[in-house]
Amino acid sequence: MQISLTTRPTPLNQYPVYWAECFGRAPFFPTSREEMDLLGWDSCDVILVTGDAYVDHPSFGMAIIGRLLEAQGFRVGIISQPKWHVAESFEVLGAPNLYFGVTAGNMDPMINRYTADRKIRSDDAYSPDDIGGKRPDRCTIVYSQRCREAYKDAPIIIGGIEASLRRIAHYDYWQDKVRRSVLADAKADLLIYGNGERAIVEVTHRLSQGQDIKEITDVRGTAFFIKDLPEDWQVMDSTNVDKPGRIEQPINPYNFVDPSCENAPDKGDNDKENRKKNGNQNGLDGDAPKVSVKVEFIDKSQRVQHKLEQRLKTVIRLPSFNDVHRDPVLYAHANRVLHLETNPGNARALVQNQGGQKIWINPPPIPLSTEEMDFVFDLEYARVPHPAYGGARIPAYEMIRFSVNIMRGCFGGYTFCSITEHEGRIIQNRSENSIIREIEEIRDKVPGFTGVISDLGGPTANMYRIACKSKKIESSCRRPSCVYPGICENLNTDHSSLISLYRRARKLKGVKKVLISSGLRYDLAIESPEYVEELVSHHVGGYLKIAPEHTETGPLSKMMKPGMGSYDRFKELFEKFSNKAGKKQYLIPYFIAAHPGTTDEDMMNLAIWLKSNGFRADQVQNFYPSPMATATTMYHTGKNPLKRVKRDSEEVSSAKGDKQRRLHKAFLRYHDPANWPMLRDALINMGRSDLIGNTRQHLIPTNQPGGGQQYKSPRRKNSYSKKHGQQNKSGRPQKGRILTQHTGLPPRKSG
What we know:
The chain is an alpha/beta fold.
């Protein structure tokens, strides 16, 4: 087998167009034979199977992939939310000429269907009328199996968030065990991880030229099974990539590796002992200062090119599935190495034995350029659900139909978040002109537009056009976060491009308001007070939600989140500029319970902070272990993969039992009488009976309300959000973690 990777991919808009372009653009991709006949198609080149309702909008993955392949000249069909118990549902469009593309949809199906307490949800925001149960558990596996039953010879390519986060052996929270790669269980031919535009276009063109899918082994962002390792590749064991070292609190979770010294030997636990053990080659005694002499014998550009070529022919062997299944330490080690190899500029291929098979994972794809991002988002989308749904509500569509995605990726590196694992940490930006064109299209074409753009953002609100000051440093950096434990000195924090975009967007004719609803990285925002003023003065709709997640150092260090000092500074700026603009606006912080590294005392201290600051949480969130996340590794293994992993390294405790998880959640809702008995017992056991009493200084009262008074949850009262119409059309409170601040807000009506 020959594998040869490239660092210079073909731009998305420079492929020769396939002959089927003569059929022109489809108003909607066909979902039935009748729709194919209306388009004059006898067959589909590609059939996409998705667990989501079909919405032809660039916020839905299948719409993007479909329109992109259509622009390449291919005929694309959609099978949306099929009846997965029978193969006949997968035969409605006939056999694809090239392949089935299978995805669970925009959201992981297990997280979509189950709560953090593993209880089944009754709703599904990506289904018509918010009805749950329209997709199976582990969609990708089930859909792939039905596709194989329907047409056994058709190639199957899997992708999307579910496949992306399960590309190697991974811990499954719902079964509480380590599972194989989803590629093995789905029995698919190829897995595409991350944002798949570049890989899917390359693979589709090759298949259309008659190449066998088993021969497509050199496309970045793909994974597949191999029998034997290629002879012309250097195989490196993962223990040589991340050797055990001192267990100490580092300045950065991963050390920056300079290209010129990347292969320097590890010092180990004791530098003196290592020098004695390895011999004193420089003629210095063990206590002499270390001397570094750099001698260049070849041209620097040649050396860099040589190292790049070496990396492109090096594969790292991870511990096998059997090893990580039985040994939590090896699981944590493998997860750490995986995250070290995520930078497209220096990542190496990975291989892992899985029950007699070897799964090969190529390095991540090269990020899309601004021109390519514009090409993808400027394609002609219908921007509405398929007409077959009639007047059915699709909540996920209603949430985003007036929003615009301006960028991709996140360099924040939260350990509990899957954005970085899926989209990468290098920001991919659209041009300002492309974004403005989309706003104008929403204004002119989308039904129900009232002049309000509901969001102008992406994974984060304020990372647009923010990047490393040096492409060379960016391509060699191995840090998982550019902003933790502090903002990297090499990060350009200039928000001027975003300010310019905001000002231009709100001046458009017919646009009354442009709101910012994406998650705001407030520790980054305070680097630009001008941006905070622009945001607060023009783009906050009364509330601005931000996510400190916790107040205590222990859990924050495991989340890779900033301390409360950044929150306090942002709050100060927020209030200052709100007053300057003459507006009454409120900052709503979100918090998470039961995150790895969180003790009962940490949650107690968070509850004290909430009460002292006048906050009462309504709906709250327990930590949810999503596959492949670093925090999930902490939860499963009890080890901290932010540092080098060895058997006596730092232990990380997690709230795993239902009782402790309920307790942590109860601390966030300290004001709920239903939680008081549990909190009383916990506070007494913690030796904090001083927090139990009947004054404002106490956390909870001594006794339950008397007189047989029936307690009603705040979420069922006529709350502030209900009073001001902040509910969805079903009449139910909106989902999410809602935190109301009673200091300065209109009083809540009695129940």
